[in-house]
Amino acid sequence: MPIRILPPQLINQIAAGEVVERPASVVKELLENSLDAGAHQIDIEIDQGGIKRIHIRDDGVGIVKQELSMALSRHATSKVTQFKDLESLRSMGFRGEALPSISSVSRLRLISRHQEADEAWEVRGDGSDTVTEPSPAAHPPGTSIEVCDLFYNTPARRKFLRTEKTEFNHINSLFQRFALAHFGVGLSLHHNRRQIHRLPPCRDQHDREGRIQSLLGAGFLEQALPIEEQTGDLRLSGWVARPSFSRSQADMQYFYVNQRMVRDKLVTHAIRQSYQDVLYHGRHPAYLLFLDLDPRKVDVNVHPTKHEVRFRDSRSIHDFIYRGLHRLLAETRPQPSQESVVASVAPASESAYERLQQQGMNLRVAERPAAYRAAFAAQQPTHAEEDSTAQSTQPEQIPPLGFALGQLHGVYILAQNEAGLVLVDMHAAHERITYERFKQTHGGDGITSQPLLVPVTVAVSASEADLVEEFQGLLRQLGIEVSRLGRDSLAIRTIPALLRGADAETLLRDLLSDLAEYGHTDRMQVEIEKVLATMACHGSVRANRRLELDEMNALLRDMERTERADQCNHGRPTWVQMTLSELDRLFLRGR
To answer: Cα(35)–Cα(172) distance, rounded to whole angstroms?
Structure first.
């Protein structure tokens, strides 16, 4: 067939295939335009899942009459003037093809009034390559775009659309992603004339948390740990849910780069790695995170829909995210409750233990309370001589997990703290404590290597063999020594002593896969920690073992000092709190 120039309408429809996959794609492009126009309020109306009608109205800067028709022309944009602008983009959209692409597969109506103009103007597109001349219209400052009968002139694409409910769910999900990134913008969403969301602009942290709660539920915010990390021009902020709030699906993961929602495998890997010690298999973490950095250090022009990005220095980004989250999750251990802080204003003559006691009922008990006092006294820190006078006037603070009352079926420890009742899975708790101690000891000594009696020969590709030479120093640090025998052959000579008996060939192949994908690997550490976790499990206190009260209290104090003590090595909770109000509800007290 001869080479020919395609007609403009067909060019626009082909371009539409890149950016307009479904109604949600249209909403995304139009929302980005509204945000770039400086809108403070954006209202969205959807009919029949967006297939019949999409209407978006904003109070942004608006478009002057002379540029209205140009807005529906290909390669026309107000956001890029030269190539170097692509290297430091701060706008949400920039390609200049969204409006003409949408117009080529729908009936589009664009009304806009520039903020300095006295009247509004309207243009229309009907799927052809022509646009009507601007005509006067009634509209406040800002812009409205109405898209009707999506894909009416491309039936092959229209038949790939799903049900009205499914298409609207995509729009609703998109709306939430935008709302969680742009707290300062008011947003509303209606479907078939029914209000779904009305979110006022957020003025402060309280408003932001209210928006998060309305979109993600109260449970997320109750379990969320705030994070604020900064190194140079890299800043990571947001909320990360505790491991106990893990999900069966990756449906509550929101990550933004310079306020742009992205899905990036390097970011996902860093977050997953930070959770590896506290999340059991098959569960997914929940988070709402914002990464801000110099726009010149990230390329957002790698995909037509701008869902993917490419970092200039991916290794440093990965390590920055991992370190911040890893440090935050290490602090998931029992902390003093608000009740214990309030209790600290009690008279100094009254001890922390005595504040937990009730009036005696003249009942005989097997254990005497002296063990509580002894255990508590043993945990008190020493103070410098000059602080002794001040200390004597301060009340004792009740430990976060309180004091042990006894055991239940040799499995659970029951304790009383200021908030109410604490139940501890003693095996799970001791397993975490033992595991963290093993890790500290192992980390201090480094990885000890063990020579193989017979080197393991592995056939690899030439590029994999090159990786071994490139990362030879790193591999030695990980306790594995590999030499190159030829262009595509390797010999494994040592492996970590803790991994003796492991499949050395599979281990090496996995290491090379990580190095090729991410430029680094945590594979060896993961495998070693699996061994340490098994050792900790076997070395921990077993169920049905009888503990004395002082042993129980010692375990509680160890939990309070141990990182990640809120979860066992498999990601399950080690303790739960039942407040007095929750206990009152169980027994209908106050009703």
So the answer is: 18
Of 78, 104, 79, nearest to 90 by C-alpha is 79
Within 10 Å of residue 190's Cβ, how many Cβ atoms? 16
C-alpha of 237 from chain center: 10
Instruction: Report the distance separating Cα 67 and Cα 63, nearest Å.
Output: 7
Helices marked H in 302-410: 314-329, 338-343, 352-355, 370-378, 388-392
Measure the N-to-C terminal CA separation of the chain; round to a whole number of Å.
85
Q: What is the pLDDT of residue 396?
A: 61
pLDDT of residue 206: 94
Reading the block at residue 445, the tokens are 């000594």
Residues 215, 181: Cα–Cα separation, whole Å: 12
45-49-50-51 Cα dihedral, nearest 10 degrees: -150
Per-residue DSSP letters for 510-576?
A: HHHHHHHHHSS--HHHHHHHHHHHHHHHHHSPPTT----HHHHHHHHHHHHHSTTTTB-TTS-BSEE
Instruction: Name the pTM for this structure.
Output: 0.75
> Which tens digit of pLDDT belongs to each residue from 10-67?
766 666 666 788 999 999 999 999 999 999 999 999 999 999 999 999 999 999 999 8
Cα gap 394→463, rounded to integer Å: 66
